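User: Here's a chain of 548 residues. Predict its fold as tokens.
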Amino acid sequence: MTVAPTPTWPICGHGGCRGVVVPRRGRCLAHVDAAGRQISLLSTAAGSPADYRGVPFTPELLEELRRRSQRILYEARFEQAVFTGDADFSGFLFSGPVDFRDARFEGAADFTRIGVRGHADFRRTAFEDDVTFDRGDFEGAADFSRAEFRGRVSLTGTRVARDVRLDMARCSGPLEAMIVSGSEIHLTGAVLERPARLYAATPRLTCRDTTFLGPSTLRVRRTQVDLTDANLAAQVSILQHFGPFYLPDGTNMEETRPLGWGSPFFAELLSVRGVDVSFLTVVDMGLGPCQFFGAHHLDQIRITGESLFRSPRPGWGVHGGIPLRWTNRRAMADEHLLRQRLESSDRNRRAWTDIDDDLPGTVMEPAHVAQLYRQLRKALEDSKDEPGAGDFYYGEMEMRRLDRAETTRAERWLLHAYWLLSGYGLRASRALAWLLLAVCVTVVLMLGLGLPDKSPSQTVTGDLPPSGGKVTLEVDTPDPVLTLPVADRFTLERFEKTLRIVLNSVIFRSSGQDLTTWGTYTEMISRFTEPVFLGLAVLAVRGRIKRG
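Assistant: Prediction complete.
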């Protein structure tokens, strides 16, 4: 329990009471005589500031306040107040800021349908039993930083115009919340010991260094979620919630957008850096800005549904003096950050989104991003999403190709060739284009140099002994020759024959056709290269349509 600070107001002192004294009465509201209590309550009902700092409230005293004030309080101050039984604030309207700092609720606390026309301050407040803020309406911020909740917490149907802060708060009981916030919801450093279910429609949900000790579900609408350094000791699921929230009675929760609402159309996960994600499930979340560098057990994360990554912007760039077109693929934010740093030309950098670095000063190398892609690929392969894992394999190979620290020069040349010929076995169109080019080149070479004028005839030669006897004959086939003028070599008849020869070479078959020496070597080369291009194309098609 946090020790309350020393009161800065004149205290009652009756039996150690820390309650603020009623003016000119020398005692607090709980210990003043009947006349003094009546005067104080009538003053509050007339619109004077409600100052009850440090006052010990019994259920009877709170009920009297409720009745006399008609549940309307102006600039209410309950700092360090103690509520010895159940506290019923349901339906209260706080016409101005309300202060419950360092207050203690020893019984259940009911704040159902309260209205606050200013800042609500519950910092370091201790709730020993269940507390309910259902359908509360806060026109300012609601601050529960370092509050302690030992029972069930419910904030269903709560609307807050500005920030909701639960920084360093501890929830020992289950948490049920359905909150619409016009600014941000902060759970930085909070500890959730029991199962938590949070429905949030807010521009940003910050869970930095938050500890989830019980199974938890975060359903978000148009929200950016930051999980940096969170401690997931139990299963945590983050889901994009489509459509409006519905309250338990079936009514639609109002989502009038307060000023400051600026979240993206789709919910997004911003960061899992420093998180052991083996207990994390992400469903239908945008992962375009999500930074993974520093996450642990990334190969065990579960990503399902339409979880979208950002692609390089379409267009042409230049790499090593060679024009290239950026491939449409899913790329993690860490690669976007790396490319922004490594790309030498402005044209190339424009293809990659300029993302705010969550850890400025941290130097990522291609080897780091390759490892991230490798682990994410394994996670998708384990979930039987082979096509989805293909883009991560492409990203991994790209990082290996760019890595000059751990990839040898020979390996980088091999990766360059693999990328150029087939997009690492994932771009069927590229492999088919090379196959078509190889076939065309082979046809031209065969027409011009490989196909002879006509098939050579066999000749028989021998010597006849003068004295008769055994005759030895030698059968010889002369080499095919090509003597036709160049213009006569490119005819339709020769093209048809050449095409059959080339197509046979694609599937490793010998044509059986007599060829010139140039033609023989051309066929040998084509029988090796063209089936390779065909195989790469088949591999790419299979990778895109395979389903586990």
